[in-house]
């Protein structure tokens, strides 16, 4: 497994680098004092894992993650535990290390990364997990059964860690998948990703406020970056 | 006041003395720079930036084993984000302790 380290503090980078050198099969390809340099590197190189500091000037760790189209696995490193809840919003974040990082805790995080890597390989082998057979059907794999979902009946999809909750007019389904994967299977004219954790059926919008949209009884947050696309979809008077 | 120590550095180095010296070298170089920026921002009344400086310094406070002082740093960082500076003297005392310690290792 290869990795890069992003942290504006050289001391922190040195510590992570040393711990990587003591771990079996973990190679540090590069280290960066800011996210911008790392983004340039990632445009041309693939990495398995990123050790990412959250609290950096100008461009935070979360800004960095949101800028990545296909983020690799990420282990956050921070001096604050208060961002832990935000971390759960991102599927790519597999662990959260509070500085100064303890060796045992570091090893545990790397082990998690290795396990995630193995899981992903299994998922890739057994794909496609979600298959469409007609324009209106989506098949999802739940407990080894392929279950048909009528696409237009879906009104909301919510990401929850490694799973997505698909809410339909008749039933809700929890599927081991990502928003990105299901987004590719849905008709773009009917569905819209309004937040990193939510896809909505545009036909099911009840009303819209500044930073949220009401879908049936659910208040769904709308991120600043997705709001213009949402407004473009509306037949505004 | 509690005294700085090498416990953390020794525990994470895996017994690699060369690395320990290298890390101390990095801290000795980085700490005065961070301290200077901290004082400049504090003097200029840029409390949000000062809070960011404290955020970065508090990592080194724990690396060098000052656990109680770390809590002071956390409170000071939070206070600075609200424009309060009454913990300045306490925090500066921590910086002096670390400065003196780094001269000895």
Q: What does this protein structure show overall?
A:
The complex is a heterodimer of chains A (237) and B (105). Chain A is an alpha/beta fold and 237 residues long. Chain A is 30% helix and 33% strand. Chain A has seven helices and 15 strands. In chain A, β11 and β12 (198-201) form a beta hairpin. The longest helix of chain A has 24 residues, at 103-126. Chain A is globular, with a radius of gyration of 20 Å. The termini of chain A are far apart. The model of chain A has no long low-confidence stretch (mean pLDDT 86). Chain B is built from five helices and no strands. Chain B has helices spanning 7-12, 17-44, 47-63, 67-81, 88-104. Chain B has 105 residues and is mainly alpha-helical. Chain B has one domain. Chains A and B meet through α1 of A and α1, α2 and α3 of B. Chain A: Residues 138-236 form the HTH LytTR-type domain.
Question: Percentage of helical residues of chain B?
Answer: over 70%
Q: Which structural class best describes the helix and strand composition of chain B?
A: mainly alpha
CATH class of the largest domain in chain A: Alpha Beta
Which strand order spans the largest sheet of chain A, edge to edge or round the barrel?
2-1-3-4-5
Tags for this entry?
heterodimer, A: 237 residues, alpha/beta, Rossmann fold, OB fold (Dihydrolipoamide Acetyltransferase, E2P), 2 domains, B: 105 residues, mainly alpha, 5 helices
Structure in a nutshell:
Chain A is of the alpha/beta class and 237 residues long.
Topology:
The complex is a heterodimer of chains A (237) and B (105).
Chain A: E1 2-6, H1 10-22, E2 27-32, H2 35-44, E3 49-53, H3 61-67, E4 73-78, H4 84-87, E5 93-98, H5 103-126, E6 137-142, E7 145-150, E8 154-160, E9 163-168, E10 172-176, H6 179-185, E11 191-195, E12 198-201, E13 205-208, E14 212-215, E15 218-221, H7 227-233
Parallel strand pairs in A: 1-2, 1-3, 3-4, 4-5
Antiparallel strand pairs in A: 6-7, 8-9, 8-12, 9-10, 11-12, 13-14, 14-15
Chain B: H1 7-12, H2 17-44, H3 47-63, H4 67-81, H5 88-104
GO molecular function, one term (chain A): phosphorelay response regulator activity
Domain Response regulatory (chain A): 2-114
Keywords (chain A): Phosphoprotein
